[in-house]
Structures are given as structure tokens and as C-alpha cells.
# Entry
Amino acid sequence: MPSLSEYRAKIEAMTDDELVKEVADAVWLSAYASNNPRSKYHEEVDAAHDECRRREKPWLYQRGWNKAYRSQGYEPSAADIEAAKESVS
# Structure
């Protein structure tokens, strides 16, 4: 099992699209492991969130979160959909 630092290095090397997929997977796994506060998936979600912030692209995290939410048959709120749009600076 990779360490958290190895995981951070892995996601740092990902493209934006790969990172969105990774966020979706990590969010889903973290939610699935909600009964285990020590699950590695919680740390991986935090690391993925940090990576999106490091890139100054918070919408990538929101896109992944929305994807995970939709995978369970739900529709994100209008605010969640808006937050997933790339901001133009």
C-alpha cells in the first residue's frame, strides 16, 4: 500500500482530467468508509483537495465531487454545479 507522500506524488503528476477522476473515486471510497474514521481514503480525499488548491483550480475538486455524487443517483445542487465551472480570472 502506497504511503500518503507517494499518493501525493502520484496525483501531482496527473493531468487535470485524471485528477477529476481520482477525486471522484476517492470521494466515493471515503464515503463508503464513513464508518471507519482511520480509513486511508479520508486522507486521500484531503490530499486530492489540496492538489486542486495547489493548482489553483478548485473547480477540479468540485467536478470530481459532483461525479461521485451523481454515481450514486443524486443530482448536485445548482451551487455545486456552478462551483464546478472553471473560473476565468
Remarks:
- The helical segments are 4-12, 16-32, 40-54, 58-71, 78-83.
- The chain has a mean pLDDT of 96.
